Automatic annotation (TrEMBL):
<keyword id="KW-0210">Decarboxylase</keyword>
<keyword id="KW-0456">Lyase</keyword>
<dbReference type="Pfam" id="PF02784">
    <property type="entry name" value="Orn_Arg_deC_N"/>
</dbReference>
<dbReference type="GO" id="GO:0009089">
    <property type="term" value="P:lysine biosynthetic process via diaminopimelate"/>
</dbReference>
<dbReference type="GO" id="GO:0008836">
    <property type="term" value="F:diaminopimelate decarboxylase activity"/>
</dbReference>
<dbReference type="InterPro" id="IPR002986">
    <property type="entry name" value="DAP_deCOOHase_LysA"/>
</dbReference>
<dbReference type="InterPro" id="IPR029066">
    <property type="entry name" value="PLP-binding_barrel"/>
</dbReference>
<protein>
    <recommendedName>
        <fullName>Orn/DAP/Arg decarboxylase 2 N-terminal domain-containing protein</fullName>
    </recommendedName>
</protein>
<dbReference type="InterPro" id="IPR022644">
    <property type="entry name" value="De-COase2_N"/>
</dbReference>
<feature type="domain" description="Orn/DAP/Arg decarboxylase 2 N-terminal">
    <location>
        <begin position="39"/>
        <end position="244"/>
    </location>
</feature>
<keyword id="KW-0663">Pyridoxal phosphate</keyword>
């Protein structure tokens, strides 16, 4: 009939039934992509957790799918955290990102036993330490580092350069100072580092360079503080194939 179909469903008929605008997700495709992504990483690095970025879109139905596929969740707000909890998503696999977490959101995360808080700045580091101490708990954290790598994507979605508003820059000494403060905080347990270069990224070279820089920093930190990294997150931002002639990682 010349109609677009998604998951075997005629979108014209869906629009008649549910109205527009209408978000349509194909459950089969979601399951397939989760398994495909996991397989590609785990066959190379068996101890890998693939984490879905909730900022792309999250509702309870999607959270249930990602739970079934044994993924982790990246949340950036109390609202996204609440959706994850409403789906009984295992909170030990939830990572709380963002450079503007409120005290109320951090308290919520601590009360619910979130797996990791990805600390973005010195203010948050001090605040989280104080809140965790007040509750008598030790919170696992990652530090978000800024490696100073240009991902060659749009300037509005580039997040890994030195002038980025996100994370602790390697070159300025802030990253080293953040490690020092995190290790001295008795109610924080530093597990490792995270970085994010931007999106969409159409080549692998920026990742290679950023990984090399962060691992070099990790070696220096081990020499100075005796800290042994146990978790390393290289972020996301992988481009999708928008056109037939576009090349993706």
């Amino acid at each position: 009939q010349g109609h677009l179909c998604v998951g075997g469903c005629d979108v014209v008929e869906l629009a008649k039934e549910f109205g527009t605008p209408l978000y349509i997700f194909d459950e089969f495709t979601l399951h397939h992509k989760c398994r495909e992504f996991k397989a590609e990483f785990t066959k190379r690095y068996p101890d890998t957790l693939v984490i879905y970025a909730s900022k792309a879109f999250l509702n309870k139905a999607l959270a249930l799918i990602f739970k079934e596929e044994d993924l982790g969740l990246d949340v950036v707000s109390g609202g996204e955290l609440s959706i994850a909890r409403s789906a009984n998503f295992p909170l030990d696999k939830v990572y709380f990102h963002g450079n503007n977490k409120t005290p109320e959101e951090l308290e919520l995360a601590l009360n619910w036993g979130i797996g990791r808080v990805v600390v973005d700045n010195f203010y948050e580091l001090e605040l989280l330490s104080r809140l965790a101490k007040g509750k008598g708990i030790i919170q696992d954290i990652l530090l978000r580092l800024t490696p100073g790598v240009d991902s060659h994507t749009h300037e509005y979605t580039t997040t890994g350069t030195l002038d980025s508003k996100f994370g602790f820059p390697l070159a300025s000494g802030q990253a080293e100072e953040a490690v020092k403060r995190a290790l001295s905080a008795s109610n924080l347990n530093l597990l490792g580092f995270h970085f994010h270069l931007g999106s969409p990224i159409f080549e692998t070279k920026p990742y290679e360079l950023a990984i090399e820089l962060v691992l070099r920093f990790t070696h220096e930190i081990k020499e100075e503080f005796g800290f042994q990294l146990t978790e390393f997150s290289v972020g996301g931002g992988f481009a999708v194939q928008y056109t037939l002639d576009s090349k993706v990682p």
